Each structure stands twice: as C-alpha cells, then as structure tokens.
C-alpha cells in the first residue's frame, strides 16, 4: 500500500513540471470506474477530473455504461458467482461558481439483468483465442449475483432489478493563488436499495487531489492528469463484517487531441481492496482497470464519448464495460 501511494504521488509531482495551457473540452478525462456489482455500490469517483468552466456555466452529462460480468470462484468456505449484465446511467449536473469552485450532483439509474452479450463475447474470445473463463459452459444470458459463506448466501440477486442508485454530491476547488492541485470532495448518500444491489445502504465520503497539464506539439495537443485520494465507507448493509472502512484509489489519464472535433484517451485506474478475509482474491485484492476511448465534438455544445474498459486484475472488475457518454454546456 505504501508503494502504491508513493508511485502516484510521484506522478502528481511530475505532471506539475509540464507547461500548462487553457483547458480543452475534448481532453476532459473519460468517465470510468469499477462497475462490478459489489464495487459500484460504494462512493468511489467515476468522473474525477471535471474541470471548472466559465463562471455561471451549467453542464449536463449523461454517462451510460454496460458491464458484462462473469466470475465463478470458490474456496472451501467461500463462493462468489457473478453472472449477468449491469447497465448504469448517471445524470450529472455541474455548475461553475467561478474558475476555482465547481459543484455537481449525480443521480444514477441502475439495471441488473440477464442481458444479451454472452454469445457475442464468447464468439469474440473464440475468434482471437482468448480464454473464456468458464463463460462458454455457463447458462447463457443468466442473472445471478451470489456470495456465500459455509453454504449460506450472504448476497443473492437472482432476478432482474432496477431503480435509483445512491445520490452523489460533489465539490471541487482550486486555490485562487494559482496552486497546481485541484481538490475534490464527494458525498454519497444511501438512496439506493442494497437488497437489489442498487446501493450500499450507507453514506460514503471521498477526498482526492488531482493535477493536470496540457501542451501543444506539431501533431496536436496532449494531456496528462493524475489523481489520488481516499474513501471512507460507512457501515454498509452488504457484507458488513467483510467490508473495509477505508479505500485508496488513484487514476492516471493521458489524451491526444489532433483536431478540434476528435481526441483519443487512455486511463489506468485502480483502488485498494473493498473487502477482507473472504479467502477470494477477487474480493480481497486491489482492482486495476484500463479504459480507452474517443471523444467527439459533433457540434459546438455537444460532446460524445465512446469507451471500452477491461479488467487488468482479473476478477477485480467486470470482464468488459462499454460506455457511451454525452456532455452539453449551457
């Protein structure tokens, strides 16, 4: 954990040595995050670098993600089976009081269902010789999220569920003195039903700092940003004896904007373990995710993001997450 912290703090300091330019909308980092059913219920940030706009400006963001989950692991006493798809739509409203202060609220709507992607993913893995991980022998298009201890179910969702998730309130601040860091605070409220995996049933608080730089070259504008922070999780109703109370998270994002209408971005992010002493590394170990995508500007006001996420720490996050995000300024 100490090594993890030192690495990202070093990256934050390094970014501060780059020359900075005015913010470019297309290089605002992609929305992402761990969309696993037992991870997305907590208050980890999903769009951590929402830079301030012009004073008095509103922005509306509609983030859509479709996560395909397939995981079946067990030990002598513990078993985890995640088989299904989770669709998450986040409506985010952001207001810039000034170039230094921004506030935002996010309302998520979540659907857990059997989905339709199994055949496509199985064929994709078969075509490129990728491991199936047991997906090809499991029932197609099934919804079953279950965690059990000694044969007793501690978490069970075996039918489709949908509804409002946990509301998030956020504020960010950059010192008027021209400091190099932007500071963020996120409060997650327990408005989602934990019995249907729509929330954790507790209030979470996250704090983090981020540093970013943009610079021009002959081949376009490049960006680099890094953020590092911690979440303090309330006493949730899911696996309360296993849930950790403090989680560290970090994110490194790079982008390239060769034109006024197109940008490509890559994001590496991770967080420390959310659970402990389950005997399953998929729950007890940190998660690491890689997200890549494109940002398009079809008009002056609208921005479209297309992205794909893969789990680098196998089992710590969904197999694959497809994203389609829309942003509009007012």
Tags for this model:
330 residues; mainly beta; Porin; twelve-stranded antiparallel barrel; 8% helix; 48% strand
Low-confidence stretches: 1-12, 14-24
N to C succession of SSEs: HEEEHEEEEEEEEEHEEE
How much helix, percentage-wise, in residues? under 10%
Strand-pairing-aware structural class: mainly beta
Q: Kindly report the name of the CATH homologous superfamily.
A: monomeric porin ompg
Rg, Å, rounded: 20 Å
The total of beta strands comes to: 15
Looking at the overall shape, the CATH architecture is: Beta Barrel
What coarse outline follows from CA principal-axis ratios? globular
Strand order in space, largest sheet: 1-2-3-7-8-9-10-11-12-13-14-15
Count of the domains: 1
**Helical region count?**
3
Beginning-to-end CA distance, first to last residue: 42 Å
CATH class: Mainly Beta
Quaternary = single chain
- Main pleated-sheet profile: 12 strands, antiparallel, barrel
What portion of residues belong to β-strands? Answer: over 45%
* Overall pLDDT: 88
CATH topology, by name, is Porin
